[in-house]
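This follows on from our talk about sequence and fold. I would like you to pick a protein and set down its sequence and fold. Go ahead and set the record down below:
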Amino acid sequence: MRLSTVILPIDRWREGGRDTWRRAEELGFHTAYTYDHLSWRTFRDGPWFGAVPTLTAAAAATERIRLGTLVTSPNFRHPVTLAKELISLDDISGGRVTLGIGAGGTGFDATALGQEPWTPRQRADRFGEFVPLLDRLLTEDTVSYEGDFYAAHEARGIPGCVQRPRLPFAVAATGPRGMRLAARYGQAWVTTGDPKLYENGTPEQSVHALRGQVERLAEACAEIGRNVTGPEKILLTGFTPDRGRPLESLDAFVDFAGRHAELGFTELVLHWPIPDSDFAADQKTFERIAMEAPTQLG
């Protein structure tokens, strides 16, 4: 079981941002992710910085920790320009980048470019084209493509990623089409649990729902002859009925982590504490969990 963190891009780099990313590395987190949004929920009217520039700065400020997005989506990204940015970021970081990628949602990103928000089916349609094209752009020197939603004309991907054949994809998915993409293209699969349980569900119901998601991933892998142990399984915490309770003590977290390790999860992602928010937590307890929990989890 690996522990990672997600650092929301809300702090100016010289006023705490850089120190947070460096501290994440000092604490031994496997990966430090950030959200790839233009704005997000209750943070919309406050500071919010871009994911790729933030990760580029983090790559220069750290040496060992992996870096990534949770998650990038087609809401405001195009595969051609995104591929160029990712190749550059992978180079600057020395091959430490993971791309968390999902179909997107109905938040502020969905209309920021002046478009009407897409329906779930429309998002799935675009995602189904976005991921395979991005895979090609990151693995081939030259790509031409004409699809229903995206096009590329002799797009160059030279010199390619430092990581070969490309940087890893962590595909966020719960539905059948997304699961198939995760099975085929994902080095990892990402979930936040069942959102319908967040308000009124129980931790036991959440575990049951997650078990079902893992089983559906296994079915999608079996369809293409891939062993389900192939993709890593990542849980972005904070969105299950447990909410912030696992961060209240080391024992509470070890219990939470153990229950999810039994489901097959190989990585848990914890939100870096943000006072007066849904991600508020005691910083000292959070850091103790980061340093001591991996040993207890084996």
Q: What stands out?
A: The helical segments are 17-26, 51-61, 79-93, 120-139, 176-185, 203-223, 250-261, 283-297. The CA atoms of residues 103 and 124 lie 6 Å apart.
